[in-house]
Amino acid sequence: xxxxxxxxxxxxxxxxxxxxxxxxxxxxxxxxxxxxxxxxxxxxxxxxxxxxxxxxxxxxxxxxxxxxxxxxxxxxxxxxxxxxxxxxxxxxxxxxxxxxxxxxxxxxxxxxxxxxxxxxxxxxxxxxxxxxxxxxxxxxxxxxxxxxxxx
Length: 151
What we know:
Strand order of the largest sheet: 2-1-3-4-5
Distance between the termini: 25 Å
Radius of gyration: 14 Å
Mean pLDDT: 95
Low-confidence stretches: none
Strand content: 15-25%
Structural class: alpha/beta
Shape: globular
Order of helices and strands: HEEHHEHEEH
Number of helices: 5
Helix content: 25-40%
Oligomer: single chain
């Protein structure tokens, strides 16, 4: 169980993660929110799209940029079920996401609190506010179940 109620945006990201699992993709979901309204959502789709960059975060950022008609998502928040990898963290910085909320940490592949620590690098021109652990139990269980079926 989680420590606090899961906000609707993270619930939407978890729902996207479940869609990814149903499609045979690693169950990661992402949602971009502006002024409390969801403007884009996506789930992992590298296998479906034959695109190694089709991570949930990148797809959600692309959709949000299209919806807003601009490349910078200043004032937007990103909710994602798993700590973003270095590639996704770089995209988050380039998009100028204001706040990043992620559920489960990723000690092996994460790039925010683990690994590359992208937002802590002096070359990073923008770093969002980062909040972790919201929905961690739910996201972690979804990932464990997905990989248990593949081992």
